[in-house]
Amino acid sequence: MVSFAQFNKGWILSSGATSGIFCNPCAILCFSPVSFLEKHSLTYIYTAFSHPVKLPGIHEFTAMGLLDNRMIDYYDSTVQKKIPKQKWMEKRLEKEYWEKGTQSRQSKQQWFKVNIDILINRMRQTSNDTHVLQWMHGCEGLEDGHGKLQFMSGVDMYNYDGDDFLAFDDERQVWVATLDAAVPTKRKWDEVTALKDYTKGYLEKECMEWMKTFLSYSKQQLRNACSPDVYLFASEAKEKANVVLTCLATGFYPKDITMNIRRDGRILTKDDGVESSGVRPNNDDTHQRRDHVEILRTDVATYTCEIIHPGSNMHVEKPWDHRLPTEENFPIAAIVAIAVILVLLVLIGIILFVLYKRGIIGKSSVSYFFLSAES
After folding, report:
1. How far apart are CA 43 and CA 59, in angstroms?
2. Residue 193: predicted pLDDT
3. Quick one: which H or E segment has residue 183?
4. Cis peptide before 281 (omega within 30 of 0)
5. Which pLDDT score, from 0 to 100, does residue 17 have?
6. What is the pLDDT of residue 362?
7. Are 164 and 178 in contact (CB under 8 A)?
8. Which residues does 276 contact at the CB level (< 8 Å), separation at least 6?
9. Cα-Cα-Cα-Cα dihedral of 240, 325, 282, 57, to 10°?
10. Domain extents for the chain?
11. Where are the bilayer-spanning segments (predicted)?
């Protein structure tokens, strides 16, 4: 039986911050003389705390959908609204879908709140401590060269305070207790035939149908070329007499692109100190590239960033306005730095919280799940 952490690596505790699991939808496909298969996954993760956690980006309740490691929808107890996280989700799904989704998330938020209280009372825990309950369910499938999806596996599992305790075995159609304290719950849920039938049906059919729909929508968007947004800006260099001039192109598809930094019309090369990030994926299936070169702060030459993107038939040269970092005109670099710091703070907070709950730091505490079928 796969564990919560194994199936969903990087999501010990889920929040608005994202990290990697499963496959990239734009990943290189496997080609062979006899097979053409691509693996896909659709997963939903719900995380609830017993009371608000005063950490940036961590909400009392969070729910999100992930298609091939890409967040496609999101809900938290602060906004209390299910929102799209991909452009194609916003474009293709009607208002009614999001309204029903919001109602469903709000209902689940209340379900989690009730059940965490039940767990705390039954395990004689104090309400002063923070506890977390998670539920993850989803499916994995293989897509052949003709676009047909075949069910591979499903997952429906619960996790309490960082420990796996109950999961559904789709093949045997039984609940599996990973902790002795969960055995009574397993027995009760195994007796509810309707629950087992619904869970199996959702994983093997309904989940796969939604995966097929979402994949179709995302691929249709990718058939349409997206032109890049282009920025040329300066940031501080280690050498005070210099600045780093950066050309950034982002949001383009397909990924083939030519980027040149020019000085008075001449293309600068590696010999001039140009370094490139290469083409990298964004979180919305588009791409970005960033080239930079270190120049003298006093350089008065004309610098431009040339972008050639054949897919969108775009050819543009972005001039540098010679504004320097000390003139407070480098919002892109600042925004990127702030975003990275916030993500790191969230991840550090999550890790520290899990370590605390496992007794690795702070006081030692062991928690078990004893949720009955009636709850």
Report:
1. 20
2. 94
3. helix 183-190
4. no
5. 35
6. 46
7. yes
8. 259, 289, 290, 291
9. 100
10. 4-223, 229-329
11. 332-356
User: Is the CB of residue 12 less than 8 Å from the CB of residue 5?
Assistant: yes
Please compute Rg for the chain using Cα positions: 25
Looking at the domain 4-223, which fold is it? 3.30.500
- 300, burial (CB in 10 Å: exposed 0-12, middle 13-18, buried 19+): exposed
- Tens of pLDDT, residues 187-219: 999 999 999 999 999 999 999 999 999 999 888
**Spatial separation of the C-alpha atoms in residues 212 and 209, rounded to whole Å:** 5
261, 305 contact by CB (below 8 A): yes
> Which residue type is seen at 309?
H
At 84-99, the pLDDT tens digits run 998 889 999 999 999 9
> What's residue 363's pLDDT?
38
Q: Which residues pair with 313 in a beta bridge?
A: none
Closest CA to 335 of 235, 229, 230: 235
Q: Is the dihedral of CA 65, 69, 72, 74 positive or negative?
A: positive
CATH of region 229-329, choose from 3.40.50.150, 2.60.40.420, 2.60.40.10, 3.40.1110.10: 2.60.40.10
Q: Which residues of the chain are under the pLDDT cut of 70?
A: 1-36, 222-223, 327-375
Q: What is the 3-state secondary structure (H, E, C) of 120-147?
A: HHHCCCCCCCCCEEEEEEEEEEEECCCC
Helix (H, G, I), strand (E, B) or coil at 200: helix
Q: What angle do CA 153, 154, 158 make, to 5 degrees?
A: 145
pLDDT at 183: 82
Which residue blocks in 12-74 are alpha helix, DSSP H?
none
Which three-class secondary structure state does DSSP give residue 286? coil
pLDDT of residue 70: 87
Nearest to 152, CA basis, from 160, 142, 161: 142
Quick one: pLDDT at residue 222? 66
Q: Which two tokens stand for residue 133?
A: 């309950």
At residue 369, the pLDDT reads 36
* CB burial readout 123-161, b (16+ within 10 A) else e: eebeeeeebbbbbbbbbbbebeeeeebebeebbbbbbbb
Place of tokens 């499916």: 139
